[in-house]
Amino acid sequence: MNSRLIASLAVSALVVLGTSGCALVSTQATQLQYSASDGVNIPHSGPLDVRNVLVVTEDGVDGVLVAAIVNTTDEPQTLNIEYGEGSDKTSEKIRVPANGVVSLGTEETDALPLEGIDSAPGTNLPMFFQSGDSEGVLYAVPVLDGSLDYYGDLLP
Q1: Pick from 144, 141, 91, 149: which is nearest to 116 by CA?
Q2: Half-sphere exposure of 103 (CA within 13 A, CB side)
Q3: Are 35 and 99 in contact (CB under 8 A)?
Q4: Of 67, 78, 136, 145, which is least surrounded by CB within 10 A?
Q5: Where are the domains of the chain?
Q6: pLDDT at 151 (0 to 100)
């Protein structure tokens, strides 16, 4: 009798372990952070949070930058953006008020014009983002075209 009880407990333990074993060793998917839209979030750019960044272009020569820039500090901050190489390097600055948000590409704030991006739709544009005292970060920003209706109005 005891051997049957022990055998049934062992089989039950194997069934429980076999059906839930993956959950013991795999990463919980809801804990993974990712960009849930067409753009990307820029990590480690300083005190400003730069979210959902993307470039919209029609010809791959001139485009516009779309992004949400969030300042969670009590002081106004400036986001420095650079793109291009060598003598074609271009710098832009965006001022964000204390505890404020600047949303580029909305009805309230136009998208930031970018000239000479030399990046066709479907590629990535290397851009440098820096704010505050941080070193900043170089990040590949997706370049999209106006084929989606909500980007069509943003084309330069």
Answers
A1: 91
A2: 3
A3: no
A4: 78
A5: 2-31, 40-152
A6: 85
Give the N- to C-terminal CA distance of the chain in Å, as an integer.
Answer: 81
Model confidence, pTM: 0.78
Of residues 86 and 99, more confidence is placed in 99
> In the CATH hierarchy, which fold is given to the domain comprising 40-152?
Immunoglobulin-like (2.60.40)
Name residue 48's beta-bridge partners: 71
Matching residue, tokens 């590409």: 105
- CB burial class (10 A; 0-12, 13-18, 19+) of residue 61? middle
* CA Rg value for the chain: 24
Distance CA 120, CA 127 (A): 15
**CA–CA separation, 20 vs 26, rounded Å?**
11
